[in-house]
Structure formats: C-alpha cells, structure tokens
Design a protein that fits this description.
The termini are far apart. By secondary structure, this protein is mostly beta strands. A hairpin with a 3-residue loop joins strand 1 and strand 2. 3% of the residues are buried.
Length: 68
C-alpha cells in the first residue's frame, strides 16, 4: 500500500470498543496511546483485533507544537 500521509505511526492495537455506529480503536505507539474514531463497518472490513499490528495514519492541514 502507498499513501500520501507522512505521519504514519506503527504500533499495536490494545483496545477496540464499538458503539452504536462508531468504534474507538486504541493503538500503542511505543508506550503512548493514539485513539482513532472509525465506523464499526471499518473495524469489521479491516478485521481489527486486539494484539494486531496497525498504523495510526494522521493527515492534517495543521500540526501544533507545544513545549513545557
């Protein structure tokens, strides 16, 4: 697969929680958790399961930087 998004974070799915129409998929990226909201249909179509390797792909027009 080739994709234009440059922010691709490889990790492991640690939780999949389905709601009425939308699911939250939590991906552990080296000790930090990224949560994606996707449709239940996407979870089923992609076969997303806990323990599976996955990428969090972030495509945004704005990226903010913060420091302490």
């Amino acid at each position: 697969m080739r994709i234009s998004a440059r922010n691709q974070l490889k990790g492991t799915i640690v939780e999949v929680t389905k709601g009425a129409t939308t699911a939250h998929v939590r991906i552990d990226i080296g000790g930090s958790i990224v949560t994606a909201s996707v449709t239940n249909a996407a979870v089923d179509d992609l076969g997303l399961e806990v323990g599976q390797p996955a990428y969090a792909v972030i495509k945004a027009s704005d990226v903010m930087v913060a420091v302490d």
